[in-house]
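Hi U.,

Before I forget, here's the chain from the pilot set. I'm dumping it here mostly so it's searchable later in email.
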Amino acid sequence: MAAFLYKTGKFSFRWRWLVTVLWAGLFVVAGVLASRADPPPPNDFSMPGTEAQQAYDLLEERFPEVRADGATARVVFRSDDGKVTAPDRKRAVEDAVRALGEAPQVERVTDPFRTGSVSEDGTTAYAQVSYGVTAGELADTSREALTDTVEEARAKGLTVEAGGNAVSETATGGRSSEAVGLAVAALVLVITFGALIAAGLPLLTALLGVGVATCVIKVLAAPLELGGTTSVLASMLGLAVGIDYALFVVSRYRDELAHGRNREDAAAHAVGTAGSAVVFAGLTVVIALAALPVVGIPALSQMGLAAAATVALAVLIAVTLIPALLGIAGKRVRPARARGSRTRNGKRRAREGASVTVGPRPSPSARWARFVTRRPLAVLLVGGTALVAVAVPAAALELGLPGDESKPTSTTQRRAYDLLADGFGPGFNGPLTAVVRADDGGDAQTAARDAATRIKATDGVATVSPPRFNDTRDTAVLTVVPTTAPGSEETTDLVHTLRGPEAAGEDAEVLIAGTTAMNIDVSQKLAEALVPYVALVVGLAFLLLIAVFRSILVPLKAALGFLLSIAAGLGAVVAVFQWGWLGELFGVAVPGPVMSIMPIFMVGVVFGLAMDYEVFLVTRMREAYLEDRQPVRAVVSGFEHSARVVAAAAMIMISVFAGFMGSDEQMVKTIGFGLAIAVLFDAFVVRMTLVPAVLALLGHRAWRLPRWLDRWVPHVDVEGEGLRKHAPVRPGVTPAGTVVPAEPYEVR
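Structure:
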């Protein structure tokens, strides 16, 4: 592997303009094709295998005039100085209902005075708006018409709020967070390299890779039926790993220059060594993303596969375009500064004319590595105990999909939610849909009436609407309003009860659907898929890392460390967003269940970044170990050469993810916090603290592979052992990666 990548890096450096023009041409062609591509189809939010999805499929078949997945809005009217049934208030509500019915894409609007959707005290009423398209297909003119109608009704003296997925949302923390993340990334890169050109290369190539990937996804969206959100994960992860991979290669290139290689050979060695680590780190990320289809959610599968392709593109850019751009930059990318300087005493004695032998002052990373390797057991116990303590709340993890109740009180969706809960009870914010289908030859009308009677008698049910039949009168729909809030455990228990045989009876099948029921099904499905997904990802990566490090214990340590990071990250998420600890500090409006997609999403993203840091950090340690077979010195040397780059990469990712915490959407805020805190734990506690401690404790055993297994494992040469014959360094210059003494030289 190292020899092949060495030749690739040398070719790209020599033919720098050709390689650069080819990549630029690919970007231009992809952009032109994307500009002419058909728009992507609506997102497929189906959940195969769930009862709610079966109910929606049945509704689509038996009630073709009703779109089960159509966008909806619920407009709530409240009179603060009387009843909404007063003539002037009633006229204002009726005018609003009429205007809503005339809006584009609206199929049906309910009149609260005809449907009885008025609270018992007469102060609150609501109208249900149903659209003929999904929320993703809803036109801006339709959303604007809804907003304008609400504003006009408010002008007539009513308190009017709107909820539902048809309501326009102004999500903060999206584009602005990406801009903030890029600004922080640029600052960290400048500090790391101390030069604008070297710092700009990772940003430039990462943006190029994301641009090409996004355009290609747009081109393939219509033919492959990729939803509009397919590129979201690809853009985020492509930017993350694109910066990381380029950072690793550029940093190694500067190290090779500092140790005496000419620029062409330095670029070739950087791609052969750091590029090998990038390739295998990228493979672990691809494994994590390509395994997302095991969850069984089409939209998530599309996002995972698209992101995996984007990561593969980032790897290809790192090993081809980066050396080409380094060749074009020439002397504007300078060698890395030497680690350390003369001691003050040595400088003074040199000025006095004394004979001195002064060694380098150890860098902060070297001092930290020596501290850890001198007290490995104590460091391991303290660090591991701290992470376990943070992970304890994860045992109480509750999954759910946040609704309008989790939004800030400044939003109209949250205010509409509160008005409905006050006027009609909390269950009105999460009605259930019961689809009744009679058995073959049965009477659907009788079955529907019997089902309504049984459901009404169930504890936790507030009201049941009269059955509504399809044209052939073989299927009926009932609206069931619980007495409890949508996200409560009581409502979840009610859904499970209504799905039991007692509610259906002997002569009919009853399927429970609705947004609340679908959320429960999705949460359950994701919870059931979490363990198999983690096992598959970690297992495949474990096998890959055996080939990378030619060891059993190092991959095992990497896997256990990742699981510890994920557990600690989930524990922090539960404490903040589910329990409300430090909720005001992080802007948590209402503590509640953690978004159901969060654990799997966190596993996929954090696993990829964790393995990036693991491979780059530990390959430098193994490279040093192969030089002189001194395990502790190898840990210190490898850590000193790679810790600064890993820390910079981690800080960039933490900043990017933390930027999403500025969003008003609790879902986005949760994702940003969870990813940022998990990367923080993994990079700085696990990889840069526990890893050197464990390797110091294991000693030589860390780098051994059983003989029976050694015959079967391919030799991939990530450390570049086979490159020693290529272009030796200048006489008297220490090659990059050679072990430095464990202690600084004494002044004599």
